[in-house]
Task: structure prediction
Amino acid sequence: MLQLCINKVWLDNLGLSMPTTTEEFYNVLKAFKEGDPNGNGDTTDEIPFTFAALDNAWAGAAPFFGSFGCLPFGPPMQIINDELVYPHTMEGFKEGIKWFHQLYSEGLIDPEVFTQDATQYISNIAMDPPIAGVFGAWTFKDMANQNRRDEYVHLLPLKGPNGDQLYARNTPQNVIRHWFLVSAKTEYPDIIMRWINECYTFDMAVQMLNGSYGVTIEKNEDGSISYIDPPEGVSRDIFVWENATVSYSPTAFYEEWQDLVPPTQATLDKVELNDALMPYLPEKVYPNIFYGKDVLDELTPLQTDIDAFILEKVTNWIVNGGVEEEWDAYVQQLEQMGLQRMIQIYNEEYEKYMALQEQ
Result:
């Protein structure tokens, strides 16, 4: 799950407490903007809150919608009281956009959030002295400036104006599909399948996640794994990340790894975060359904067009405002684009999935 990171040193420098509500968070951002929390004598260089709208579905911004009872960036449908609800037409989605517009209009959000790519985003996080007060990352290892990582701590879900305090959870899944596409014209399918099978052996799996033997890790005589010291000035997490295929390759997770492979700091960070987020996760989440070709042929163009329209509207509303005045027309346009048919498909597929689970 995404980590929301806040600069604890900045809080301490300004005599502020960790924010627990959206109102307190707003006041913290105001103080970050006006109080020179990085102490360099310049009150114009701080970026109170930054995220990358072009990267990973609004990484760093999406979790805040949970403070308004809405989880719009994740599974396509939200489950509320055992009913499927489309999150992008919920009242909480509108209220969340209004809140983001307030932050943006007062200069509390990085004005580059809708144009910066991942490189620019990480560059801002890596500045020394730091200029980013709050940002989102998958792990603290994603920070380019590892010397500053201890200055940041987890920001837990904020309680919204109506008491909502949700955080989106990932869809549970034991098998991640679609790792391989093999051309029907290949002359050597047996060789390809042998290579694929090798990816799921213990030795290959551990190297895909932790780097190669003799480079970042070593296999000891008792079968356990130890880490090779990284070059000077490079953290172990970054050293592993740069030498492993990680999430960009298929792999398996073995139960015995708990005893044989020491966890990286990134793993420990994730465990700590996941434990802290447990009280805020929804009880039920739309499952990872494997749709058939006929369903995808109809669903994909609907979803693609609707997602593009929503992103365009939300971006404009956060920058320029007007969501309250344009909301009804927005919903009407979604209806004309086939929203109800898309919702119907998701409901039908969900019912089929649940029926299979009961067998």
Remarks:
- The chain has twelve helices and eight strands.
- Residues 189-280 form one domain.
- The longest strand covers residues 132-137.
